[in-house]
Amino acid sequence: MPAKIHQATIPTQVKDPGLVERRRRQIADAAVQLFIRNGFHKTTTRQIARAADISIGSLYEYFHCKEDILYLVCEQIHSEMEKGVAQAMNHASGGKEALAEVIREYFLVCHRMSDFILMIYQQTQSLPSQWQRRVLENELRITGLLVGVLARLASSGELPRLNERTIEILAHNIVVLGHMWTFRRWFLAKHYRIEDYIRLQTAAILRMCTAGPEEFPAPIDPPAAGGGSDADSPSEGGPREVS
Amino acid sequence: MPAKIHQATIPTQVKDPGLVERRRRQIADAAVQLFIRNGFHKTTTRQIARAADISIGSLYEYFHCKEDILYLVCEQIHSEMEKGVAQAMNHASGGKEALAEVIREYFLVCHRMSDFILMIYQQTQSLPSQWQRRVLENELRITGLLVGVLARLASSGELPRLNERTIEILAHNIVVLGHMWTFRRWFLAKHYRIEDYIRLQTAAILRMCTAGPEEFPAPIDPPAAGGGSDADSPSEGGPREVS
DNA sequence: ATTATCTATAGATCTATAGATAATGC
DNA sequence: ATTATCTATAGATCTATAGATAATGC
Questions:
Q1: B220 at A interface, C-beta within 8 A
Q2: pLDDT tens digit string along B129-147?
């Protein structure tokens, strides 16, 4: 529960932890709707308080500043996303269609969370940079789940042998093509139903992951990046620091 | 020159059109840097005026309001993008490698315009909705260039026969995977050089567009939508309006 | 005279807190 | 007595404009 863990890190004047969690959720639930509709900056703390049905004074007992609210909102969204994606991976019943099913379930999560995902794209930049980093880590963790799926399928032979960097990029691609439904929705939803979108994208992604073996030349990469292994874990040959 | 066309639509008190264009560019150039660094809402009109080296009073002779500045900035970015993408398509020397070259050139444009593209993703929502729509149209126009490329290659036999909806989705995918370099740069640039990224993504995209023929089942779609071919072209069974 | 630019500020917010009040538990 | 909540507002902005000044062209 990353959201819970973080709860502790936002300071509060209120002693009762259960109350703190309840009120914070109440506030966050009200805030996220306003952020989605009007954006973070055009939403005032008073509006949030009113929508959450508490006074502005009380609000500030539970959050130190407006940005704290946005951060908790982001944490809750990512927590929900991660739950959904993890479930998607269980639903997938293995076998030849495993990847197709994972994609389908993942895209349905994106569809369901559409407004929230879009909000994260738009508002993350309004967070203090320290929290921006945490939100991005969440994003990466979710991508990691997809990396896991692809790696498993590749090693079990249900996908061609893919080198690690290819797997990583493909996972990012799948994640982002799911997000695309949220941030190009103004166009896509006019012309496609979600089921159409999933069908077309599943076909495209499967091709992207499963073309004939000659399409995946032996790993050209590992130029063994000479020693330094930092927290950033260049766990393979390839990764390279760029300022 | 969409930017120029629009120039006319932003009202101004100043008579000399040449001066208007010069000053507006001067202001927009200063503003975009601030928007990239601090976001639209955290940037004040005074900061913009100072950075553009004019007084706050003068600034408001050239723009009716702060949002106008953001809009002009967006127009200029998209105009530059479109120019770059159009060039990318000329560079591509036809033949078997044509698509790979287009992708490469397009991705290099994304790399060069990285900060600007990201800014559009983050700040479009701050525009009045009428101008939001125009920015999204620009986005669609650029995607349309890619649709054109794919359609040409598919009909000339350099790509398999793809039905229209598949082409459309593939074009969106290419556009968005270029953008991905900008909005996941915080991760990607730590582990990949742009050349690595282009190489991996080109391979993935080519697979996505060119898998064996059995991967593109005969157009399930064309239930011959009774002649009518509109701009929105629900040319097949599927598309459907969603509020 | 007309056009462009500047300074100074009105007017309208908005965040965050101080200090008063109500509710709870001993 | 302690904890939670509220009202009222200090203090700090920020956008956009009014009215004064400088520059330009006839």
A1: no
A2: 999 999 999 999 999 999 9
